[in-house]
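Below is one such record:
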Amino acid sequence: MDFTFGIVAEGVTDQTVIESILFGFCENKNLQVDPLQPIEENREKAGWTQVLEYIKTKDFKGAFDFRDYVVIQLDSDVFETDQVGEGLYRLHISQSNVEEKVDLIRKLLISTIGEEFYVQKAAQILFAIAVGEVECWLLRIYFPTKKAKAGKTSGCIKTLNDGLKEAGADFYIDLKNRDYYRIMSKSFQKRVQLLSYSKLNSSLSIFLKELEEKVVEVKNGSEGEV
């Protein structure tokens, strides 16, 4: 599959994981995948608030002039704490299940984009909403036979560091080094492995389902099957 993608994400390491997923899902490591927010030159301007601010902008709207799809990534973890004060972005999702959390955040993103523009571009917008954090999506790689750890949706950074230690890796991920995330997510670049890993993580599976519906069906004239 030969499409072009842009990525709006909380950080550059999140972009790296999404990029690996796109390479694997489309079975094409030469895809054009452009970081839209944040960019490497200004990577400190990152975080969930910056995602929400960016998707209100003319730059976001203009991104569709040059790309087939734009992926918007957001983690659920911050919305399950008191870090988000009462107001526009406050969601009460801590007691919701995975599907409900994804749906609530999806609705927040749509309302922030604006209903009218979203309706125009819905077929080109992909939501990568990680319940917990993107690091939770990587756990299956490092705990292939431990379902409880592989399926976690909280405390995933610590658990992933434990997995790296068990695997004999010579790095930890606390510094959010893009190269480390590229190494960790490399297995996602193989479609068979990616689909297998998604089976124990519902929010990753939801993202892949959206890719199937919006990307694969377009490629196959709405008649294809994954």
